[in-house]
Amino acid sequence: MSMKGFWKSGHPPTLLMALLYFDMSFMVWMVNAAMAPFISQEFNLTAGEKGLMLSIPVFAGAFFRIPLGLVAEMVGRKFAAMVGLAITFVAMIYGFYFVHTYFEVLIMGGVLGVAGASFAVALPLGAGWFPPHRQGLAMGIAGAGNSGTIFAGLFAPPLAKAFGWNSAYGYFAIPIAVVMVLMWFFAKEPPDKMEKKSATEYLKVLGEKDIWVFNVLYWVTFGGYVGFSSFMPTFMADQYGVSKVSAGQFMILIGFTASAVRVLGGWFSDRFGGIHVLTAIYIMIPVGAIGAATLPSMSVFFVFLVVMAGGMGLGNGSVFQLLPLRFPYAKALTSGIVGEFGALGGAFIPIVMGYSMNITGSYSGGFIIYGASSIIALGFLLFFQRKWTRSWVGKGGKALVKEESAEA
């Protein structure tokens, strides 16, 4: 599968705009997590209060994904992207001028959910121009917008230290405005739209058993990515005593690793099959999680964290290689549904980590529970794979296309 053939098979400007939209939105979604040590110090927060603060943006992002995905199905993905960017811009201005107490930080976290919901639109917007046997790579490229975590960790802590944490909201409004302008001029609505349906007809997908299997699969991969990205600054400050600025930037490690390999996850899945790739991933993640649960020296902990983050990123790309093959008639909505449950997994992790510390005096329990969830996901995958390969997907999870078509 040549990259030259890949780019010719779709519309690169739209894919790039989808990547930028998701990237900058994800950056905004994680801004409170990156500044958590500063906010926590100002309001003298307990471990439970920290977990709540970090979970609300993730819960809100999950809540908004289905509505935004439905809007994308009904009136168009580009329009939905513009609406999401406009609301996110207004949210940043609100945060800059009006957020000054812990309660207002929690409210701001809810508003940040609109940025987190961008996932439901960005992936089908960019990948909708590409044929089925290239969907995994296209989804992986658009989904690499997870790297917004890197920018949140890189820029928010220094801005918070230099100008106060409220100022970061104002600075982050600038790239949102730039992407909104670029989206208007360069993105085009994908041509893969099937016949128009009512909202009720689209929502019937919730009655499909397979959508709930995908929810479980993505709960582990994307949930782990979001949850540990948002909690890592707090964890590093509490567990290893690093500075507030450095703690915020440690989320870059997860962001870079998972975002980079997400593209590989899509490519590997196109080539070898998403089922095969996911089987290996759900073994890889518990290895990293159990190692991290021992709370070793910081350098050894990083090794286990990279193993976990690599599994998360590869898994994110693999799940979204399979999803559009199963539901080609509702890509935006199913992206929103599965993305919602993945985000809920992300909200679950800070809460579990916080309660683990409160109850046992250690964060180890949170890592162990996450590793166990990966083993459960593996069980679901192995149980359903035979049915899938007999109905809508090829051996190992490859797209059902003729070989000569795949090489075109």
Summed up:
The protein is mainly alpha-helical.
Instruction: Give the terminus-to-terminus CA distance.
Output: 8 Å
Number of E strands: 0
CATH topology: Growth Hormone, Chain: A
- Given the structure, what is the number of helices? 20
CATH architecture tag = Up-down Bundle
| Number of structurally distinct domains | 1
Report the principal-axis shape: globular
- Average pLDDT taken over every residue: 90
CATH C-level label: Mainly Alpha
Strand content: under 5%
Point out poorly predicted stretches. Answer: 403-408
SSE order, as H and E?
A: HHHHHHHHHHHHHHHHHHHH
Tell me the name of the CATH homologous superfamily. MFS general substrate transporter like domains
Largest sheet: none
Relative helix content: over 70%
Radius of gyration: 20 Å
Structural class: mainly alpha
Keywords:
globular; Growth Hormone, Chain: A; 408 residues; single chain; 0% strand
Q: What does this molecule look like?
A:
With 408 residues, the chain is an all-alpha fold. The chain contains 20 helices and no strands. It has a single domain, classed as MFS general substrate transporter like domains (Growth Hormone, Chain: A, Up-down Bundle), CATH 1.20.1250.20. Helix 9 packs across helix 17. The N and C termini lie close together (8 Å). The C terminus is likely disordered.
